[in-house]
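Intended use. Records like the one below are meant for learning the mapping from a protein sequence to its folded structure. Do not use them to infer anything beyond what is encoded.
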Amino acid sequence: MVTAQNLVPVSPGLIYTPHSYVEPIDLGGIFGTIQPLEVELGSGDGSFLVQWAQLHREHNFIGVERLLGRLRKLDRKGARAGLSNLRALRIEASYFMEYMAPPASVCVLHVYFPDPWPKRKHRRHRLVNERFVQAAATTVVPGGLIYFRTDDLDYFAQMNSVFGADARFHATNTPDELSAVVTDFERGFLARGVRTLRSAWQRISQKEQVNRERPQRS
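Structure written out for the chain above:
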């Protein structure tokens, strides 16, 4: 398991090594230009994120991945594409969400094909649970979006259940433009005829939150 304590420095490039693993990262120190931030948790070989970052150079992107081999693939692909708006970070996704993502800093969060941990006794290891919802509510800006993809029906139901139970989020749709950009896992699933399940959730706006918190007249 990769944690903040056992990480080792990696080669320079798009891979970002924070000064501290116990406090929020300094976004101003990562990118030369401050732009809306999108994060992919579990970026795999970078297939999705590099394509998406090329299409949206008006946003900054961070790919979070715990496996160094995958992170280096993202680094190489992003460097070949000349993406100054992309960085890679080696850390556990849940740790990043809870301890390293600055509050209200992410406009779009991508979570595609996380490990489903299909055995009942292992489900506690799943990334998307009630605790993840709390972290997302803190990290995602009001009006921000969270997009999920999975091939596992049970995990899909859990994702929708935990977010549907939280009044700070409401269901929305995945744009066709986004659906058209596939991940490395998704490419393999599609070749085998496995269906991709998609879900999208939006953090309620500040106005919606104020209206919900305002006392109702009797």
